[in-house]
Amino acid sequence: MAYVWVDCDRYTVRNRYDSIATFIPLFDRILFLPRDSRRHAVARLNLSAGDSVLDIGCGTGRSLRYLHEAVGPGGRIYGIDISRGMLRQARKLCSANGWDNVELSECDAGEYAAPTPLNGVLFSLSYNTMPHHRTVLRRAWDQLVPGGHLVIMDAKVPPGLSRKLVLPFSLWLMKHTMLGNPLIHPWEELAALTDDIDMTQRLFQSYSSAAA
Fold first, then answer.
1. Number of domains in the chain
2. What gap in Å lies between CA 201 and CA 210, rounded to an integer?
3. How far apart are the C-alpha atoms of 37 and 152, rounded to whole Å?
4. Residue 108, in any domain of the structure
5. CA 60 to CA 21: how far, in whole Å?
6. Cα separation, 54 vs 141, whole angstroms
7. Cβ-based neighbours of 96, under 8 Å, separated by 6 or more
8. Alpha helices, DSSP H only, in 50-132?
9. What kind and span of H or E run contains 40?
10. Which one of 55, 157, 180, 181 is most buried, by most CB atoms within 10 A?
C-alpha cells in the first residue's frame, strides 16, 4: 500500500503551531524524543565561542540553551519561526535566562537572510514540517561560511516491519499534531548539496541527525 502526504498551506501551519505552543514539552514525551537529542544535534554543529548560528523553526526555544552554551555570550544566535505563539514562548525563555545575544524573528524561513554569515544552521524537529523544505535548505546552505556545519535532527519512520506497523499511525498523528511529514528523508536532500554527510540514528532508527 502506498502512503502519501498532503502539505498544508502556510496559514494552516502557523495556526496549528500557535495553538499547540504551550504543549510542546508534552509532545516531546508523546513522541518519545530521546532526552538529549537537541544537545546532541547542537554538538554536531561544532560551534566555537563567538560564532553565529541560525535555528530554523526554533519554536519555543528548546535548543537555545545548548546553542548559547556553544557560542557563549560573544556569539550570535538567530532564531526564526512562522508561529507567533511559539516565538512568544521562546522570548519568555530568553528573558528569563538573560540571553541578550539571541535575535528572534517571525518569518518564512524560505525568505530569511541572516544579518551575518553563519557558522552553523540547525533544524531541530522542524525540517519535516516545512512544505518548501528544499527551498529553505538551499537558502540556509548558501548562508554558511566555508567550513560551516548544517544539522537536521528530525523524526523518521524505522525500516523493515516496523515501518509497516508505525507509518499509518505516524501519518495520522502528524496530521493532527505537528504537521511533520514522515516521508521526507533530509539526509537524501542534503546529499544534493554535498558529499560530506554523516547521519546517526537513535531510538530504533526512529530519529535521525544528519550533519553536513
1. 1
2. 9
3. 11
4. yes
5. 7
6. 11
7. none
8. 64-71, 84-97
9. helix 37-43
10. 55
Residue 6: all three cell numbers together: 498532503
152 HSE (CA, 13 A, CB side): 28
Q: What is the pLDDT of residues 129-170, one digit of tens each?
A: 999 999 999 999 999 999 999 999 998 877 776 677 777 878
173: cell is: 498523528
- Asked if residue 181 is part of any domain, the answer here is yes
Strands 118-124 and 52-56: parallel
Range of the domain at 154: 10-211
The sign of the CA dihedral 6, 9, 13, 18 is negative
What are the backbone dihedrals phi and psi of residue 55, each rounded to the nearest 5 degrees, phi first?
-105, 105
Tell whether 111 is covered by a domain: yes
Kindly state whether residue 36 falls inside one of the protein's structural domains: yes
Nine-digit cell string for 206: 526512529
pTM for the full model?
A: 0.94
